[in-house]
């Protein structure tokens, strides 16, 4: 199973429009990446206005999606998040190096390190509370594990107690 962010995105049902800024960015030139991110948000805004279902790939390391989610919720959208994570930024950097060797896009190591902890914190503190449903998926060296999920007006379901505790206590509270 390919459980990367893009791996889940590309498994979205055909009726759901998938938006991935990495696909729009022709190279790893910073201006192109920023432009691709803005274009993705523009496309998503059009989908929201057209009341279309969509999926978007993001590290959640920034706040760019907060306004989009708030707008979508105000229009009756249901927000589902599949959050995949690994053990450390070093795992991300190694995977990116492998992707680059195969012709994929690069992300500078300093950016990966900066975004890694912000992504974990933002998921827990900002994006998870905004969602109707979330699924937490570990995709590190110990293999793919469905760790926990949560449905609003329901309860937290923890499938892997040890990994969930590690996620919250070790990774997110560093």
In brief:
This protein has 174 residues and is α/β, with parallel strands linked by helices. The protein has helices at residues 5-9, 21-24, 30-49, 66-74, 89-101, 109-130, 161-171; strands at residues 17-19, 54-56, 80-85, 133-140, 143-151, 156-158. It has a four-stranded mixed β-sheet with strand order 3-4-5-6. It has a two-stranded parallel ribbon with strand order 1-2.
Characterise the protein shown here.
It is built from 7 helices and 6 strands; from the N terminus they run H-E-H-H-E-H-E-H-H-E-E-E-H. It has helices spanning 5-9, 21-24, 30-49, 66-74, 89-101, 109-130, 161-171, and strands spanning 17-19, 54-56, 80-85, 133-140, 143-151, 156-158. Helix 5 (89-101) packs across helix 6. The chain starts with a helix and ends with a helix. Mean pLDDT is 83; it is low at 24-29.
For the secondary structure, the number of strands is 6
Question: What proportion of the residues form beta strands (DSSP E)?
Answer: 15-25%
Distance between the termini: 29 Å
Secondary-structure-derived class: alpha/beta
Which key phrases capture this entry?
single chain, 174 residues, alpha/beta, 4-stranded mixed beta sheet, two-stranded parallel sheet, 7 helices
């Amino acid at each position: 199973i390919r459980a990367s962010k893009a791996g889940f995105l590309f498994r979205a049902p055909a009726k759901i429009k998938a938006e991935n800024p990495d696909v729009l960015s022709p190279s790893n030139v910073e201006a192109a990446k920023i432009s691709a991110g803005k274009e993705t948000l523009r496309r998503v805004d059009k989908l929201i206005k057209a009341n279309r279902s969509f999926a978007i790939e993001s590290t959640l390391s920034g706040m760019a999606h907060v306004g989009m989610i708030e707008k979508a919720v105000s229009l009756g959208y249901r927000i589902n998040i599949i959050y995949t994570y690994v053990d450390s930024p070093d795992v991300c950097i190694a995977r990116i190096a492998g992707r680059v060797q195969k012709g994929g896009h690069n992300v500078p190591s300093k950016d990966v390190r900066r975004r890694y902890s912000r992504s974990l914190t933002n998921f827990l503190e900002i994006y998870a509370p905004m969602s109707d449903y979330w699924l937490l998926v570990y995709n590190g060296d110990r293999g793919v594990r469905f760790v926990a999920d949560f449905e609003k007006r329901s309860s937290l379901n923890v499938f892997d107690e040890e990994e969930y505790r590690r996620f919250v206590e070790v990774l997110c509270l560093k």
